[in-house]
Every structure is written in C-alpha cells, then in structure tokens.
Amino acid sequence: MLTVLVRRVARLLVVLVGVSLVTFAILQASGDPVALMMPEAPESDRAALRQAMGFNDPLPVQFARFVGNIARGDFGQSFFHREPALPLVLARLPTTVLLTLLAMAVSLAIALPIGIVSAIRRNSVFDHTATLIVFLGTSMPVFWTGIMLILLFAVQLRVLPVSGWESWAALILPAATLATFSTPLLLRIVRSSMLEVINLDYVRTARAKGVSEWFVICRHALTNAALPLVTVAGLQFSLNLGGAVITETVFAVPGLGRLIIGAIRQLDFPIVQAGVFLIALMVVLVNFAVDMLYLYLNPQIRVR
Amino acid sequence: MKRCAPLAAVLVLALFALAAAPAPVSAQAKDTLTVALVSHAPTLDPHMHFERVGILVNINMFDSLLHRNIKLQFEPSLATSWKAISDTQWEFKIRKGVRFHNGDVMTPADVKYSFDRVIDQTKKSPQYGNIRAIKEVKVIDADTVHLITDKPFPLLLERLVFFPIVNKKHVETVGDQAFGTTSPVGTGPWKFVEWKRDQLIRLEAFDQHWRGKPAFKNLIFRAVPETATQVAEIKTGGVDIIRNVSADIVPELKTHPQAYISSTPILRVHYVMMDMRVPPFDKKAARQAANYAVDKPTVIQKLMAGLGTQVSTTVQPPAFGFDAEVKPYPFDQKKAKELLAQAGFPNGVDITLHSSSVADRPSFEAVSQMLTEVGIRTTPRMWDPGPAWNKFFQAEGKATHGAYGTWGNYSVFDADAVLHPLYHTEPGGWIGKWYARVEGLDKLIDEARSSVDQPKRKRLYAQIQQMIREEAPSIFLWTQYDTLGISKKVQYAARPDEWLWLYDAKPAAR
Asked: What is the C-alpha separation between B490 and B203, in angstroms, rounded?
C-alpha cells in the first residue's frame, strides 16, 4: 500500500515538471514580452530591460530560474493588473471549485439513481424516457441552456436571481447549467457498468443468499460498477474546472475561466501561466484522488 | 445501503459546497443604484488605465479640474476658473476647502502631484500620451496652478475633463498598488467600500462632497459580461442601468413595465477605412464610387432601430470644427458604377474587407452587399477582436483592401481627435500611416492642432472636411447613439460623451 502511494506521488511530481515545461514553452512561443511591457519605448530601453529581466540567458538557464520561481510561488507580475499573478489567480479558485463541486453533486445525484434504475429496468419505458430527457440536456449548447434557464426561472417565474455570486440562490442556475452538460455521460456510464455486473455470478449468489435487493445493488453491484464511474467523474471534474468559462460568462460568475480568457486576450502571460499551472495541478490532484479511490474500491489493485 | 460509497461522496461534496458558499445579501434596497458593466478595469487608480469601463467608475469617485455638463459645456469642478495667459501657459484657480474621502483638504500640491505621476514615464501610465504636451505644472500660490505646455495645445481643456486629482499624501503613504486596489481616495460624490474583481465594485455616498450629497446612498458597479444576462437583469430589477442596448432589444425595453430607454447621439463614427496603397482604392474615382454605393438611411432605419445619423466625413456633428456645409454622399448606384468604370474597372473588381467589431456585424455585411451590387464585389471577413487582429490591422497594417471600424475620439469633442488617428501618416500615428494617402492633409492637420486660435482652427477644419469629402479616404457612414436601458425607479438620461455621471441620477417620483 505504502509503495503504491509513494509511486503515485513520484508520478505526480513528474507530471508537474512536465506542465511547467509546457507553460514555459508557451511563454517562449508567444513572442517578446518586453515589447508588450514597453510598447512605445525605443529599442535601446527595451534591450536594457531584456538584459535586466534575464531574457538574454540560454534557455535552460531561464527554465531553471522559471521552475525555481514557481517553486517559490512567484509567477511574476500581471502586465494588465500590475500585481503579482498568483494571488490574483488563487483568489478566483474557490469560486470555480465551488461551482464545479456543486455541478458534480447535481450530476451524480441525477445520474446515480436514474442510471441504476435504468439498468435494472433495462429497455423499459422509464429507461427510454430518462435517456431521452437527459440527452436533450447534453445536446444543447451551454450558453443557450444557461440563457433559457435564466428566462424560465429568473424572468418568468421570478424564483431565482438572474446572475451574480452574491447569494446562495445565485449558485443554483449556473450549477444546473454545468450539470446538464455532464450528467448524460455519467448516466450512461452508471447504466452500462451496472449492466455489466448485474448478471454476474456473484450477484446471483448474493441474491440466492437472500440478501435484500437494495443491498445487492449498492454493496455488491455498485461497488464493482463504480470504477469506470469514478474515472469518468474525475475527468468531468477536471474538464469543468477549466471549461466552466461559458457558464461563468453567462451568469457573471467571477471565476477562474473568465480571468484566464481575459488574460489570453490581453497577452497577460503571467496570469495565463499561473492559471494554467494551477488548473494542471488541480487535474493532477483529482487524478491522484481517483487513483486512491481505485485502491479503496478494488482490493485487487491494492494487492498488485 | 451504508456502504454506498459514491452516494457518500456526493454527500461530502455537497457539505463542502455548503461550507464554502458566499454569504447571502439582502435584496436590492431603494437607496441603492446598481449599474451593469461588461467588465471591470484592471485597477481603480484613475491614472493607471485608459478604459471606458474604468473611467465610468472613476468619475463617480474622483473629480477633475473641469467638468462637462450634459450639454457638453465646460463647468467648474476642482478648478473654479481658468484662462490662457499665453499660447503655452494656462492659469487655473483651485476650489478651496474641498475634502478628500479620508478628510484631507485638497490643495494645489495634490494637483501638481496628480500630473507629475502621469508625466513620470517610469510609472508607465497609459494616459501619458493624453497630456504629454504638458511640460510643467507650477504651484503659484494657495489656490493657483499654472500648466505650461511645450507648444500651443488646443485640446488641453478637453483633456482635463477626465484627469482626476488624487491625494498626494495618501498615495505616497499607501503606495500605488494599494491605492489602485484596496484604498482609492478621491474627492468625488461616492467613496470606496469594496471591490470584488469581476463581480462588483461597491461605493458609498460621501457626506462631505463639495457639490452636496448624491441622491443614492449606495452605488454598485457589477461586472456582467453577457448582454442577454444584462437584459434579463434589468427586466427583473437586478440592476438599474445597462449600457449599449442593441437595436434588436430596444423595442422590447421601450414597452417594458419595469424599464425604459434613454438614447442620445454620441461621437462614435462608423466608417470603412480604404487601403489607398493598392488598387482599386488607390484611385479617387473608386473610393468615391464606394461612397455612392452605400444606402446609409436604409441601414440606419432597418438595422439600427433609427438610432444613427448619417455623416459627410468622419468628423462628428458635436465635435469642434464640424462643418455642416459639407454634405453626405447621396445613395446613387448609377453614379457609383460610372465612377468605378472611370477608375478602370468597367467589369467590377473583387476586394476583401475586414472587421473585428462583433456588434456591428450586420451593418458590415450590409455595406459589403451594397458594394457588391455596384460591382465592388466584397468578401467580408470577421476577426476575433484580440491580439491577432490588433497585430494584423494596427501594428502591421495588413488589412487590404480595407476595414470596417468605429472611432469614439476617446470622448474628445474636437475634430483633431478623429482626423489625426485615421488620416495623419506620421510613423507614430495610429492607422493613417498604413492606409491613408491624402496629399497635403498632414500639413493641414498639424497646422490646426498647433494653434489655440479657435476661429482659425474652425476654418482649417472646414477646409479639411471639404478635402476628405472629395478625396474619400474612407467610406463615410454614420454616427451611432448611446442607448441605455434604465429601471423605472431611476431618473437618468444618456449623455453624448457616454459617461455615466450618476450624480445626476435621482430616484423616480412614485
């Protein structure tokens, strides 16, 4: 068990070095940051700043310094905000994580029961109806879903605020919008992996022992069906972290995606780098958590 | 049931979410005015950005030496009077007893400091170019300041309408960064409470403001990037003012029980900048043909809800120097075809036009179609309004055969503010250096900008307008309106300079 853990942590570090290499390469490929910082300055001034900032050193030296700075949490000053980049990015993180968690919670709360029932009552009217409705959700573009939800719940029914992040009620629509997108995939995974295990011998044995049906489903079938679900849920979570930008825009949520997209438009590299690095870090951590869940769910992996 | 791990995980996630959620706030109060902006500026420091969304917030927190009223007349603000002592020297009398939000009294030293921190190039203020003509600021006595320019600078008063005066002692104590983020201090009607980036800026009425207290106690600027969301917010009372209401939304808000529309002509002029370096637009006849080809009144009626005014050149009617004697090109397809043949294209010509103005896409496509109808077969190309476009169009001048664009003069009501960037060919200029080639125009623009003799400048601008009307370096289209959507609980009117001067906003009588 401990060796597995150590191995996973080591792999995590390797991935982080890779991410920093890619982020560094983005900076190098994007042109001359000095020209951006001093657009109207004469070339002699630019050369001086380039020298002062170390842009004339060999690339490996610059990379080593870049990694060193990251290790100290220093991503440089945002060109646009004229403040250190990392705190600006970190300030947005809780908002996006909260939105993503809520959306995942809603997705799972819908996908699990409906997926299980669909698997048990395979090809029933319930199965088909559930599939149809949920797939309508994923077929709609996110911005459209968002605006339709606003028109229905905020403008027509007046039960929820239109946008913002100032109240609890304001979180509901954006979370629901994100969830309509990720629910169908999870639902399909629950349904198909349940179908795979539900007719296996050990499930039949459990039933034969006289265990209650719900216990059979939850304890025996679902734990075994959960591996693919955990994988996909982890992927969806990562996807939403960086990909919630449209939802954040429609609902005026002050999240990470909006900050990074704005920074890309303004060629604000320090923000982009800090943001990309942070999201990559989150993705790595989520994958790590998924791996750990594997160990918990499937003793076979633990033994290997 | 007890070992259903995924369900347990969901519960844990939900609990985590509950713990991390923002605190609820009470519903909109009556003494609160909420404005939706598409974004926030990078800083609240009024000298360290030059963005419309930031200016709109800053003007309600900071005063400048001069104010401009809704009729576009200069009014005293922190300066009570001003006069030119010579061609290059101006005297300003500073208002006495004005207090900053932190209680300090505003002095001529603060005025000098404010200019100095923008003129100081190490601070890299984006507003440096606006006032770079100011060579020196001299404090003469307790209520007098002299501004000395390096040459006659006719735009000086225009520039001073947005040049906020900051508190020297305070800025030096807290530092530039804190001043721009957590403790901006001015003399304006509202003082700073909090800023949540990309979410809201909260201000509170300043009791000791020299004009008297503003009507609304709380002023909130929310960042709402999506237009459809802004419209939904105004319909439900979530915000009180939205900007740039598009033509297709106007009829809906006009008849809405909660909202109304306030609209006024502004400086923003629409044009197609023609590339005069290469055929077909290196020929005057081809450029005139393009001007005759566009049916401006129809576009204004059908695509802009009537909220536009056709123009004769790019000089806008409210700008100083506008000459009403110069008449717009009429819509005349026959004449356009004749001129195109004269230019050497009897069978028409294929061109490409570019644009990055998403909001004006319908007009851009209509203009392209109208050009095609007379034989200037146009392929319209839309660009993402980001770095690639700026590089292509502005930094490298590659937008052949032309580009649809709009220009708002940065709210400077003077012909120079549109003529110089569009048509002057000096290397440090904006796009004129790439696309415009009008013989003798540079000299006239230079002459008009280096004199403070207003009648003389007016004559020069009249001459320039006749010249560019004839030479047609652009397709001259129309000026647009600024259109606000306003909640019925608020009394306010759109301004020709697109400012949101919310001191003029009042609660509507019920």
From this structure: 17
pLDDT at residue A272 is higher than 90: no
pLDDT given at position B485: 97
- The DSSP-derived string for B293-336 is H--HHHHHHHHSTT-EEE-SSSS-TTSBT--TTSPPPP--HHHH
DSSP states of B352-410: EEEE--GGGHHHHHHHHHHHHHTTEEEEEEE--TTHHHIIIIIIS----SEEEEEE-GG
Across the interface, whether the CB atoms of B13 and A101 are under 8 A apart is answered yes
Phi and psi torsions of B479, nearest 5°: -100, 150
Among B219, B139, B213, B123, CA closest to B176? B123
Pairwise CB contact (< 8 Å): B42 & A81? yes
Cα gap B7→A230, rounded to integer Å: 12
Residues of chain B in contact with residue A84, where contact means CB-CB under 8 angstroms, are: none
- The sign of the torsion formed by the CA atoms of B140, B143, B144, B147 equals positive
pTM: 0.86
**Per-chain mean pLDDT for chain B:** 91
CA–CA gap between residue B245 and residue B403 (Å, rounded): 24
A212 touches B: beta carbon within 8 Å: no
Q: What is the DSSP string of A199-211?
A: TSHHHHHHHHTT-
Cβ <8 Å between B6 and A222: yes
On the question of pLDDT at B208 being above 80, the answer is yes
What pLDDT sits at residue B24?
38
The amino acid occupying position B387 is P
Rounded to an integer, the average pLDDT of B341-352 is 96
pLDDT at B423 over 80: yes
CB contact under 8 A, B43 and A147: no
Whether the per-residue pLDDT at B27 is higher than 50: the answer is no
What are the E-state strand segments in B56-131? 66-68, 74-76, 79-86, 89-94
Beta sheet of B89-94, edge-to-edge order: B79-86, B89-94, B144-149, B134-141
How many other CB atoms are found less than 10 A from the CB of residue B200?
22
Q: Which of B1, B2, B3, B4 to mutate to test the interface with A (most CBs of A within 10 A)?
A: B4
Judge: A254–B228 Cβ closer than 8 Å, yes or no.
no
Report pLDDT for B3. 45
* B262 pLDDT higher than 90: yes
How many A×B Cβ pairs under 8 Å? 135
Task: At A64, list the tokens.
Answer: 């080593």
Q: B500: which residues sit within 8 A by CB, 6+ positions away?
A: B35, B56, B59, B60, B241, B243
Provide φ and ψ at B324, rounded to 5°.
-70, -10
Q: Give the three-state DSSP class for B454.
A: helix
Ramachandran region of residue B6, left (φ > 0), alpha (ψ -120 to 50) or beta? alpha
Mutate to test the interface with B, among A89, A163, A213 (most CBs of B within 10 A): A163
B384/B386 Cα distance (integer angstroms): 6
Stated length of chain B: 510
- For residue A158, count other CB atoms closer than 10 A to its CB: 11
**Spatial separation of the C-alpha atoms in residues A204 and A201, rounded to whole Å:** 5
CA gyration radius, chain A: 24
B485: enclosing H helix or E strand:
strand B474-487
Q: Are B234 and B242 in contact (CB under 8 A)?
A: yes
Is A151 close to B42, i.e. CB distance below 8 A? no
**CA neighbours within 13 Å on the CB side: how many for A242?**
14
- B354: Cβ contacts below 8 Å, ≥ 6 apart: B380, B381, B383, B392, B393, B399, B402, B403, B404
Asked whether the predicted pLDDT for residue B25 surpasses 50, the reply is no
Which residues lie closer than 8 Å to B233 by C-beta, 6 or more apart?
A162, A163, B36, B224, B239, B242
